[in-house]
Amino acid sequence: MRTMFEPKHRADILARLRSLRPGAARRWGRMTVAQMVAHLSDQMRHSLGDRPCAAVRGPLRWAVVRYLSVYWLPWPKGRIKGPPEAFATKPATWEVDVRGLEKLVERFAAKSPSGEWLEHALFGKMTEKDWGVFCYKHFNHHLTQFGV
């Protein structure tokens, strides 16, 4: 299973992120590529505890559904709505936003596995392993959305 905690998987994600261009066309959804970078930054801030999000009630919080969603099921394209806090940051300067996201990824990777992990707004209680797989899958989903 690919995870942001595995150096080679993280390096792949960061290389794909760096290959993005500001004018990249989306394959689905409504976000622009700059909004997607800001969205991934918000998600990383949530995982690091920098930006707590209000819990969203629903079946994704059920242990079996969470497990299947994080580890096995493909994610629908443009159908799941995240909490408002996951879309709080407005894009600024492309290079600064991408570098900032890279730094957030590195902070995430350096976090202690035995440290406190906040609840995910949609999925609820998650372990370090869950967070690593979720973050990889989330980045992969959106990078694929923009063709990289």
What portion of residues is helical?
A: 40-55%
Low-confidence stretches: none
What spatial form do the alpha-carbon principal axes imply? Answer: globular
Number of helices: 5
User: Can you count the beta strands?
Assistant: 0
The whole-number mean of residue pLDDT values reads 91
Strand residue content = under 5%
- Please summarize the sheet with the most strands: none
Give a structural overview.
The protein starts with 6 loop residues before the first helix and ends with a helix. The radius of gyration is 14 Å and the shape is globular. With 148 residues, it is mainly α. Helix 1 runs antiparallel to helix 4 (94-110), helix 1 (7-19) runs parallel beside helix 5 and helix 2 (33-48) packs antiparallel against helix 5 (128-145). The chain has one domain (7-19, 32-145). It contains five helices and no strands.
Which tags fit this structure?
mainly alpha; 148 residues; 5 helices; 0% strand; 50% helix
In short:
With 148 residues, the chain is mainly α. 50% of the residues lie in helices and 0% in strands.
What is the strand and helix layout of this fold?
Blueprint: H1 7-19, H2 33-48, H3 63-72, H4 94-110, H5 128-145
Helix pairs in contact: 1-4, 1-5, 2-4, 2-5
